[in-house]
Structure formats: C-alpha cells, structure tokens
Design a protein that fits this description.
Length: 379
C-alpha cells in the first residue's frame, strides 16, 4: 500500500511513534511518504520505500501567523495525487487531522477518494485539544476521519469525555517497541564513565513541560540519594529546564545530576540505567517509559492517564498517585536497595515491554489500512 504519514518531526511522543511505524511499514514492503515541516528525528535510513515531503510556509507581509495548516493541506492534496496514495495517516489531532479532512474534501471535489486515519496521542485531547479555541475543529476532524485510533484505553475514554463524538468508534492501538532496533546494548564502558563508583543510574526523559512534573523527579532523586549512591540523568529539554536546574542546586543534588539535552542514542543511555522515573500529571501512554522497560529498566511512575496500562504496578515497577513524592521515593528505594529485587524488576520490566512488541501491534494498523482499501474497492 502507499501510505502518507503526517507527523511532528520531534524527538519524543507522537513523532517517534509515527516515524517508527513508517519505517516498520516500509520494511514490510509498503511505500511510505512522510509529510512534515522537517525531516522526522528518527528517519535516519532511507530505502526505496521511504520518502519525505517537506511542508514549507512562505512569509507575506499580511501574515502575522503563517498559515501552516493551509500549506500542509495543499501538500497533502499534491502528494495524494502525484504519488497515488491509498491512505493518509495523521498523528496528533492538531493541526494534522483538520488539514487532512480539508485535503480529503478538496480531493473529493476532483473525484479522488482518500481515507483518513487519525491517531490521537495525548495532549491533543487532554490538554490543548479540549481548549475551546480548538475543540470544534478537533471534534469535527474526529467525526470526519474514516478511522480514529487512540494509544490507550484511558485516552479513548478521555476523548469521549471531552468531545461530543459518541457516535464515532475509537479503536485502541497501543504504542510499541521495535526490538530489532531498540533493546539493551552492551555499553558497560559508558556506565563506568558516568558511574565510576558503581552508583545506580536513575533516568528521566521528557520535553520538560510542566505536565511532566520534572521537579518531582528531582525531589524523588534527592530522597533516593540519601539512602543509596546514585546519579540522575535528565534527557531532553524544554520550558522547565532552568527551573529544574535551580531546584537541583536548592536540593543539593546538582553534582549528582547530569543534563544530557536532546539525545539520539536513547537506547544506549537506557542500557546502563537502573530506574526510570515518570511522575507526570497527565500521560496518555508514556512511550519514554516503555522504551526504558524495553532496555530492562523498571519504572516508578504516577498513575495518570494510560500509564498503568503499560507499567504494571508491582511487576515492571510501581504506579503512585500524582504528586505523591514520598511514596514514589519509597517505591524507588524498594527496587534499588536490594540487588536481587532490582534484577527481578529489570527482567519483569522487559517481559512487560515485550507485550508491546511491534510484531504484535503493526498488524493492527495494517488491518485498518487494508479494511479501508477493501471497503473502497467494494463501494
Ligand atoms: O505530550 C508529549 O509528551 C508529547 C506527546 C506527543 O504527542 O508528541 O506525547 C503523547 O504521545 C505519546 C506517544 O503516543 C505518549 O506516549 C505520551 O504519553 C503522550 N503525552 C501525554 O499524554 C502528556
């Protein structure tokens, strides 16, 4: 099949899911056309089945706000026509779903049919999407998409809660790991470099927005380090970074904390880590934690949104109430204080991650695309 994938080109979240999905589909022989304003971060390998189409926005004296959505819709129209796409799969509702619906309507006026699959990822529903500034357009785009998927059951329920789309079926297709590309690496020399005295490595990765509660990560770590020797690795960057740096100084853990910024080799860092912290206020799935688990790293997280569907309490780690730093610290120490317990949680984290193997999830997306094409052929 020829599939257009529209996504943000960013390092985390929906951008990663979209690009890993596209690469895996290309490996299975589908022709994949990425459409974005930049080359997606993880599209590192090109082959005969992978294409990238950039969306450009031209400036004009009248445009205080360049009309990205218009360029995107026009680009989709052109690519569907020129490349004869079978389906458009858009990741993150704003503005990708509405632009796709617009493109579909333009094409329909020319007698060309293109079905739209919209995958909801999280904040497009739970935070920004439900803002009255966007809600009517998001609701319409959901209703007009041929298929809507959500990355967790919790996000599916939240979508029905925040939007009047009860007539629309929303299919849950969870996020996944491609174990052939993402798994524990043998990089012990790297561990010796960061933790020369055998300290435990505690890690967190995010876009440092308030919703991630990175301040809780630092507070939990401050509690951990009182009991066991440890280092904190913070991966990513974002608006809260300066406040977090300040907090590490205030809590006296700045010398044990390393800010690594945006990183490509996440699997290498996870491969030497002992514990992943994800205390988010809101999290529809928590892909970063699943990537940690795939590298045998247990997770102490909040129980927000869909996290508990992925991180099994007492098995791959623990889930605690949002903001309950004291319990999260206790749970982290329960895992780290004893070598046997740590080893048990590490192997259980891996077993749990295996349930989200791309081999199990990819066919769910292929079924969606195929059923749309079949329905169209039969119509
Ligand atoms: O909010 C983010 O961290 C980015 C966002 C995105 O769409 O890029 O992430 C959301 O989608 C991820 C991939 O499906 C999920 O793993 C994250 O849980 C989700 N983030 C939130 O719900 C806060």
């Amino acid at each position: 099949m020829k599939i257009g994938i529209v996504c943000f080109p960013t390092y985390g979240g929906s951008g990663v899911v979209a690009t890993e999905l596209g690469k895996a589909l290309a490996a299975r022989g589908h022709q994949i056309h990425f459409i974005s304003y930049n080359l997606p971060a993880r599209v590192d390998i090109f082959n005969n089945n992978l294409f990238y189409h950039e969306v450009n926005v031209s400036s004009y004296p009248l445009f205080d706000y360049p009309p990205y959505e218009t360029s995107l819709a026009s680009q989709m129209v052109n690519i569907v026509k020129n490349e004869k796409l079978d389906v458009l799969h858009v990741h993150y509702a704003i503005p990708h779903a509405s632009a796709a619906i617009f493109a579909k309507q333009i094409l329909a006026a020319e007698g060309i049919y293109i079905p739209v699959v919209t995958t909801l990822h999280g904040t497009d529903i739970t935070l920004v999407g439900k803002d009255p500034l966007y809600e009517p357009v998001v609701s319409y785009s959901i209703k007009q998409s041929e298929v809507v998927t959500a990355v967790s059951e919790s996000l599916r329920v939240d979508t029905y809660k925040h939007f009047h789309v009860e007539q629309k079926e929303i299919k849950v297709i969870p996020n996944f790991i491609d174990f052939s590309k993402f798994s524990k690496q043998k990089v012990e020399h790297f561990k010796k470099l960061i933790a020369p005295n055998g300290e435990h490595l505690v890690v967190h990765t995010s876009n440092f927005r308030k919703v991630k509660r990175v301040d809780d990560v630092v507070k939990i770590f401050a509690g951990i380090i009182k009991e066991v020797p440890a280092k904190l690795l913070l991966i990513g960057d974002g608006p809260e970074r300066a406040n977090i740096e300040q907090l590490t100084r205030e809590l006296g853990v700045n010398n044990s904390t390393t800010f690594l910024g945006k990183q490509d080799a996440i699997d290498e860092i996870m491969s030497v880590s002992d514990l992943f912290l994800l205390p988010s206020e809101q999290e529809s799935f928590g892909l970063a934690a699943l990537e940690a688990m795939a590298c045998e790293v247990p997770v102490v997280s909040s129980n927000a949104g869909g996290i508990a569907e992925m991180n099994l309490d007492g098995f791959s780690g623990f889930n605690c109430n949002v903001g309950d730093v004291e319990t999260m610290t206790k749970r982290a120490l329960e895992i780290l204080s004893n070598a046997e317990t740590l080893a048990k949680f590490k192997s259980q984290a891996f077993l749990q991650a295996k349930k989200f193997d791309i081999e199990n999830i990819l066919p769910m997306y292929e079924d969606v695309y195929e059923s749309l094409c079949t329905a169209h052929r039969l119509a």
